[in-house]
Write a structure and sequence with these properties.
The complex is a heterotrimer of chains A (94), B (482) and C (490).
Chain A lengths: L4 H10 L6 H18 L23 E2 L9 H5 L5 E2 L2 E5 L3
Antiparallel strand pairs in A: 2-3
Chain B lengths: L4 E12 L36 E2 H13 L3 E2 L2 E2 L2 E4 L9 E4 L6 E10 L2 E14 L3 E4 L9 E5 L6 E7 L6 H18 L11 E11 L9 E6 L2 H20 L8 E5 L4 E4 L12 E2 L6 E2 L2 H9 L5 H12 L3 H7 L3 H13 L3 H19 L10 H12 L5 H14 L3 H7 L8 H14 L1 H8 L5 H12 L6 H13 L1
Helix pairs in contact in B: 2-3, 5-6, 6-8, 7-9, 9-10, 12-14, 12-15, 13-14, 14-15
Chain C lengths: L1 H4 L3 H9 L5 H19 L2 E4 L1 H16 L11 E5 L26 H8 L3 E6 L19 E2 L2 E5 L5 H8 L5 E6 L5 H7 L2 E4 L19 E6 L2 H11 L29 E5 L8 H16 L3 E5 L7 H16 L17 H12 L2 H14 L5 H24 L2 E5 L28 H6 L3 E9 L2 E9 L4 H14 L14
Parallel strand pairs in C: 2-3, 2-6, 9-10, 9-11
Antiparallel strand pairs in C: 1-3, 4-5, 6-8, 7-8, 7-12, 11-13, 12-13
Helix pairs in contact in C: 3-4, 6-7, 8-15, 10-12, 10-13
Classes of the chains: A alpha+beta (94), B alpha+beta (482), C alpha/beta (490).
Chain lengths: 94, 482, 490
């Protein structure tokens, strides 16, 4: 079950992160260590235990359906790497 | 011997909810607008922003669920569906994967007089993505694309059916019925052409009699009821050909090409994407108060099936007419309001089924966009019932009314279309016509009763159609028997 | 002038009110201090000098008209660089956001503006808050003002160091598992992490959404109460924020712990360095002397907190950091097609620690691993939370060391501390984060010239109790006040 370089490549593909060969190696080793540490959790009996998703017991936090002004065009695009006609430009989609 | 196959079809229908604001931020949901003018840091996925749930979207989802006979889950929550695409600002779509808001509903369809229940597996709430504009004619032939996030985070419900449909006609009937019910509830515009109603289909074939499912394909890009039906018909033929040649169906996503009339593979890579669903900690769960659900249920309007039944039973309409009139809420309301003003339901129905729908369809208009109001139609029908205009005139008046929205009475006056019911004036013309057509008179008197029709026509011609045909008929019979 | 620098907000407020000091003088003194020491310490990623001077002058004008007397008015402060500031570059110490100017302020930034505090700059942190030493910052590690060889801690080491080095009076950071408390302990200042939801997280670029909470670094408990009062409160832009009925924190600054029951969870002492343990025992003795009842108890799930935390944090971070795709803001590395652009942008924009965390998070959320890792961690989280909550039904608060050791050494240029196993130094701080409970780290003496930090953990929305116990210790020992010792130790 440990971490392998193939698994690291596969998650890097899912996460859209290009890794150098050295990074693949180092990260594989680092994650092997992290995974080993998490092995401890397997000792814990969690039958009948509900997962904690929300740390405080809130529910039904709603907003009324009222329109508020958004950003002006200048602010929308100010940080964009590349724009055209008010849109965010992206290279060819395969 | 060739195997007979049957199709197994399920639909996934996305419906944009007609809220004022987006699902997780306060930007307007208005359709259109210049690119990126209906956006804020939240729906642009800027760092540090957080989603806050729109109460109206929850209400509309419950409303839709109740109208589609669903059970409302007392507990529902939001999950993140993680994937990268330029139209998805946070690189995850907030959706309900583990605990959807509604489950286990159904829609009843009717084909060839046979009723059938199509089950709904679930309805969940989610956010829409933005739109991509392409530099070229298609996505793959484009050098680059441009992202507009006006639509990003508009609330959607996804209605997932069970694989209960067995033919393209059933799929179409289901989608049409779904559209009608949702239009009645007022939760969406349900316009396929504007994308507020979108449909993907899962389809597989299996030998008739088999209870196992075959390998399915998912069909996308169907932009109308007609294209849904055509795409499924094509796909059935395609799959059948593959199977008959001994091939196997590949589980894949296929796009419908409306122009070419074919489906083609969209995703060659066959491993399914791992979306890494997990609950979104930024949005506390929804725990619905039964009292609120009750209030929403009580506010539901009369739905198409109930309405149709009422029109058949109480108004004496045919199943067919009642079905058409109740296929949209606006049409059904138009009918009801007209009948209140002119209490001859069948006449109203005939006019709606005839002239009204013909002109609406010809012009591509919605009921709400038409200049004809129930008041004006009722006024027109009254003029005809009172004998002030003939049926023929009424059609002319209606067309004018449809085009201009003028009051029927005004049109009648402007066109000088007053029906001649004055016996004295008509008698003269009748005498003139009898004198000019001795052959027809002779025929009639020899027992050819049909000849009277010709004579009526002649009188109408003389009066430029303004004579009251009933009175002309009476007068003719009287003179001929003298 | 230098005498100004050690003062707290409430002390300075007195001088400002009496007009013995102007805002401009105060801000200039701190800017001068930054100029003098930050070349070495490197607490700041950006100093907003001009805006600060401008604001200080405006404040003085207001004061001369009798306005601007809010508790924090005119007080120089800094923000961790993962808090969004409108128009001011907010980097998260990442190449990815090196030039990102948010078009909005974090809610806490708005609140501090209302309180008229003066922003002097943005502080260094581990990239996107992922780390415990600031060594994963894309720019530089922050040095510990008490010992330049030592790390200032992390993630929010810059903000802690800025307060410790007297470059600002207080600072805000974020704490997902100890990122305020651990650097506060390392740097010898107070680091308060409130109850999850007490302070709005809108505009905080969080790594772990269910964990991260904005917290503050101050020089004493009174300032902690003042800052917390200014930044807390429900926010319509954060669904998890709540309005607590107990927000008059300064009222809890009472010099009295008589009869309070303080729990001492024994698992938190296991493996702790002897000098830290000695300091801890001293604090216990002091509290008992002051009339508190201290009792040992056992929290057996404590040892599972760190692996549990690492899984939850990495999972949430992998999703939260997915938005950096080179489309709307931030770095883009050009490529022929969009997929290559994503891969190159994210490959080059993130540092190795962030990549490691993202990949680990992606792994534990993948369909095959979800049950065994992510879901398992959420269930263990329940047990840890229940255990702490049950203990806090019996005790008014818990006392523990903040970290097992004093600040570790910086690994040196071009290196980082991967060999140390990632975020291990958050082992004693992450349980309170997993449970969403408030906790505060405060200095309690030094070992080898490096500060020792102790931690109080309280009930949900029980910040007042933590302030009371801390304040009492502060009033009755001189161990909680550490003089900064940068000069002369170079």
């Amino acid at each position: 079950m440990g971490m392998t370089i193939e698994k690291v490549r596969s998650v890097a593909d899912l996460a859209r992160i290009e890794l150098t060969a050295e990074e693949e190696q180092r990260i594989t080793e680092a994650l092997q260590a992290v995974l080993k540490q998490t092995e401890a959790l397997k000792q814990v009996n969690t039958e009948q235990v509900e997962p904690t998703i929300y740390v405080r017991p809130l529910q039904n936090v709603f907003r009324e359906d009222e329109v508020q002004e958004g950003l002006v065009m200048e602010e929308v695009l100010a940080n964009a790497p590349e724009t055209e006609n008010g849109c965010f430009k992206v290279p060819r989609i395969l | 011997m060739a195997t007979a196959y049957e199709a197994v079809i399920g639909l996934e229908v996305h419906v944009e909810l007609k809220t004022n604001t987006k699902i997780f931020c306060s930007c307007t949901t208005e359709f259109g607008g210049d690119p990126n003018t209906h956006v804020c840091p939240g729906c642009l996925g800027f760092p540090g922003t957080l989603p806050v749930m729109n109460k109206k979207a929850v209400e509309y989802a419950v409303r839709a669920g109740l109208a589609l006979n669903c059970a409302i889950n007392p507990y529902s929550r939001f999950d993140r569906k993680n994937y990268f695409y330029p139209d998805l600002p946070t690189a995850y779509q907030i959706s309900q994967y583990f605990h959807p808001i509604c489950k286990e509903g159904y829609v009843e369809i009717e084909l060839g007089g046979k009723k059938k229940k199509i089950r709904i597996n679930r309805i969940h709430l989610e956010e829409d993505a933005g739109k991509l504009l392409h530099s070229g004619s298609s996505i793959t032939s484009s050098q680059y694309s441009m992202a507009d996030y006006n639509r990003a985070s508009v609330p959607l419900i996804e209605i997932v059916s069970e694989p209960d449909m067995r033919s393209p006609e059933e799929a179409r009937a289901y989608l049409e019925k779904l559209r009608a019910i949702l239009e009645y509830t007022g939760v969406s515009d349900v316009k396929m052409e504007q994308g507020s109603l979108r449909c993907d289909a899962n389809i597989s074939l299996r030998p008739v009699g088999s209870t196992e499912f075959g390998t399915k394909t998912e069909i996308k890009n169907m932009n109308s009821f007609r294209s849904l039906q055509r795409a499924l018909e094509y796909e059935i033929d395609r799959q059948q050909d593959v199977l008959e040649e001994g091939g196997t169906i590949i589980q894949e996503t296929r796009g419908w090409d409306e122009e070419k009339g074919i489906t083609s593979s969209m995703r060659s890579k066959e491993e399914a994407t791992d979306y890494r669903y997990f609950p979104d900690p930024n949005l506390p769960p929804i725990v619905l108060d039964p009292a609120w659900i009750k209030t929403i249920k009580a506010s539901l309007p009369e739905l198409p099936d109930a309405r149709k039944e009422r029109l058949v039973k109480e108004c004496g309409l045919s199943e067919y007419d009642a079905g058409i009139i109740t296929s949209s809420r606006s049409l059904a309301e138009f009918f009801d309001r007209t009948v209140v003003l002119f209490n001859e339901p069948k006449t109203v129905a005939n006019w709606m089924m005839g002239e009204y729908l013909r002109l609406l369809n010809a012009e591509g208009l919605e009921v709400s966009e038409s200049k004809v109001t129930p008041e004006k139609l009722a006024a027109l029908l009254k003029l005809q019932a009172d004998g002030k205009i003939s049926g023929k005139m009424a059609k002319v008046v209606f067309e004018e009314l449809f085009n201009t929205g003028k009051e029927p009475e005004t049109i009648v006056k402007e066109k000088g279309m007053v029906q001649i019911s004055d016996t004295g004036a008509l008698e003269e013309i009748v005498m003139k016509v009898l004198a000019a057509n001795p052959q027809s008179v002779a025929d009639y008197q020899a027992g050819k009763e049909k000849a009277i029709g010709f004579l009526v026509g002649q009188v109408m011609k003389e009066t430029k159609g303004q004579a009251n045909p009933g009175i002309v008929n009476q007068l003719l019979k009287k003179k001929l028997s003298e | 002038m230098s005498s100004l620098l050690g003062l707290t907000a409430h002390q300075l407020q007195g001088l400002l009110e009496k007009k013995e000091l102007s805002c401009a003088e105060l801000v200039k003194a701190h800017l001068a201090k930054i100029e003098e020491s930050d070349g070495e310490i490197k607490a700041f990623t950006r100093v907003t000098r001009e805006a600060a001077l401008e604001q200080a002058q405006a404040m003085d004008a207001q004061r001369s008209r009798g306005e601007g007397l809010a508790p924090l008015a005119g007080i120089p402060m800094a923000l961790s660089d993962n808090l969004c500031t409108k128009g001011i570059v907010t980097t998260c110490s990442s190449r990815m956001l090196e030039n990102f100017r948010p078009p909005y302020n974090a809610t806490v930034v708005e609140k501090l503006q209302e309180a008229a505090a003066v922003l002097l700059g943005k502080c260094n942190l581990d990239e996107f808050g992922l780390g415990d030493s600031t060594e994963s910052s894309a720019f530089f590690p922050t040095r510990n003002p008490h010992d330049l060889q030592a790390s200032a801690g992390g993630a929010c080491g810059g903000a802690a160091a800025a307060v410790a080095a007297q470059e600002v009076v207080f600072a805000l950071g974020s704490d997902a598992g100890g990122s305020v408390r651990q650097p506060a302990a390392f740097c010898g200042v107070i680091g308060l992490k409130p109850t999850y939801g007490l302070v709005s997280g809108y505009g905080l670029i969080a790594a772990g959404s269910s964990l991260d909470q904005v917290g503050c670094f101050t020089r004493d408990f009174t300032d902690g109460a003042l800052v917390l009062e200014s930044i807390c409160g429900a926010d319509v832009q954060d669904s998890n924020s709540v309005s607590s009925p107990h927000t008059d924190f300064t009222k809890h600054l009472v010099n009295d712990v008589k009869g309070l029951k303080i729990g001492l969870p024994k698992e938190y002492i296991e493996g702790v360095a002897p000098k830290v343990k000695t300091a801890y025992e001293q604090a216990v003795a002091k509290l008992e002397e002051l009339g508190a009842v201290c009792e040992e108890l056992s929290l057996p799930h404590t040892k599972y907190a760190l692996p549990c935390y690492e899984i939850v944090l990495a999972a949430e971070a992998s999703s939260n950091l997915a938005r950096y795709d080179g489309v709307r803001y931030g770095l883009r590395v050009e490529a022929e097609d969009v997929e290559s652009m994503y891969n190159k942008t994210r490959g080059q924009g993130f540092g190795e620690e962030a990549k490691k965390q993202i990949l680990f998070g992606t792994y534990v959320l993948s369909a095959q691993q979800y049950q065994d890792y992510y879901l398992k961690a959420l269930k263990v989280r329940t047990l840890i939370k229940q255990e702490l909550e049950q203990a806090l039904e019996k005790y008014d608060c818990l006392l523990t060391p903040t970290t097992p050791t004093v600040a570790f050494n910086l690994a040196g240029k071009g290196k980082n501390h991967h060999g140390r196993g990632g975020v291990q130094t958050h082992g004693l701080t992450c349980p309170a984060s997993l449970a969403g409970l408030p906790a505060v780290s405060f200095p309690f003496g030094k070992a080898q010239g490096r500060p020792i930090g102790l931690q109080l953990i309280g009930r949900a929305f029980g910040e007042g109790m933590l302030l009371r116990v801390g304040y009492t210790l502060e009033q009755n020992t001189d161990l909680t006040q550490l003089s900064p010792a940068v000069k002369g130790e170079r």
